[in-house]
Amino acid sequence: MAAELRRLAHNLSETSVEGSAGQRTAERLATEELDAGPLLEDALNGDTDAIARAATAGGYDPAAFAQLLELALQPVLWEAAARCAVLTDVDKWDRGYCPVCGSWPALAELVGAQKRRVLRCGRCGTWWSWLVLLCPYCGNDDHRALGTLSSDDSRDRVDICQHCHGYVKSIATFDSVPTARLAAEDAATVHLDVGAREAGYTRPGTVDVATAGIPRLVREGRARAGGD
Ligand SMILES: [Zn+2]
Ligand SMILES: [Zn+2]
After folding, report:
1. For residue 170, how far is its CA from the centre of ligand 2 (angstroms)?
2. CA of 17 to the centre of ligand 1 (A)
3. 89 pairs with which residues across the strands?
4. Which is nearest to 71 in space by CA: 44, 48, 110?
5. Tens digits of per-residue pLDDT, 104-145?
6. Ligand 2 geometric centre to CA of 119 (Å)
7. Ligand 1: distance of its center to the CA of 187 in Å?
8. Ligand having the closest approach to the CA of 119
9. Which of 85, 103, 137 is the last residue in one of the domains?
10. Which ligand is nearest the CA of 135, by number?
11. Same domain? 164 vs 94
C-alpha cells in the first residue's frame, strides 16, 4: 500500500498543475520517506480527523493528502470485496451500509428487465440486493414516507426518504457496472445529486448512529428485510 501511495503520488505530481498545493503534496509524498502504514489504517477506518491532523502537521494540502490515501487503498478494498463475495453471500446482507468497508452506498442499480434494486458501495464496489421501498439509511419502510424525485432523464431517478431526508440515486442498467467504472458512473450522474440537494435531501440522510442502516423490521427482530 505504501508503494501504491508513492506510485500514485508520483503520477499525480507529474500530471497536476505545477506549483499548486495538490502538486506539491503529491511530489512530497512520492519522494519523502513517510511512515504510511498508520495513515493508511486511519484512511481504511474512515478516520478523517486523524488524516486531517496528519496533513496539517506535515504541511500537506489536506484535500490532496486525503484523496491520495483513499486512492492508495482502492486495490486493497477491491481485493477484500472480491474475497468477501467468494466467502459469503454478501447479496443477502440486510444493512444499508457496505458489508465489506462500512461505507454508505454511492448509488443503486436497477438491474435487468425486472429492475432488481442493488446497492453499490462507491468505495470498494461491493453490491447487495435491497428492497425498493426501504431507506438504506434510517430503515424506514413506510411507503407513505418514501418517494421519488422526477428527473428529465427517464433512465435514472432519485429515491428519497421523508424520515431522514436521505436520497439514493438509481440508475437503470442491464448488467451491474464493473467496480472500476463505478466512480465514473457516479460522476456522470452528478446532476441527480445536485437536484436532490437542491430539494433538501442529503446522502446519507440524518440518522441516529445506534440504528443507522438497520431496517425497521430487523430492528424489531421480526424478519430479515433486506434482499428479495
Ligand atoms: Zn464497501
Ligand atoms: Zn430514511
Report:
1. 15
2. 31
3. none
4. 44
5. 999 999 999 999 999 999 999 999 999 999 999 999 999 999
6. 15
7. 17
8. 1
9. 85
10. 2
11. yes
Give tens-digit pLDDT for 104-113.
Answer: 999 999 999 9
Domain that holds residue 177: 90-219
**How far, in Å, CA of 193 to CA of 209, rounded?**
23
CATH number (domain holding residue 119): 3.90.1670.10
Cell of 7: 506510485
Average pLDDT over the chain, rounded to whole?
A: 89
Task: Tell me if the bond preceding 204 is cis, omega within 30° of 0.
Answer: yes
- Are both 113 and 55 inside the same structural domain? no
Reference 55, options 67, 71, 47, 66; nearest CA is 66
Cell of 80: 477484500
β-strand partners of 149: 158
Residues in the chain: 228
Question: Is 101 in contact with 123 (CB distance < 8 Å)?
Answer: yes
Cell readout for 122 is 462507491
In the block, cell 503529491 appears at 26
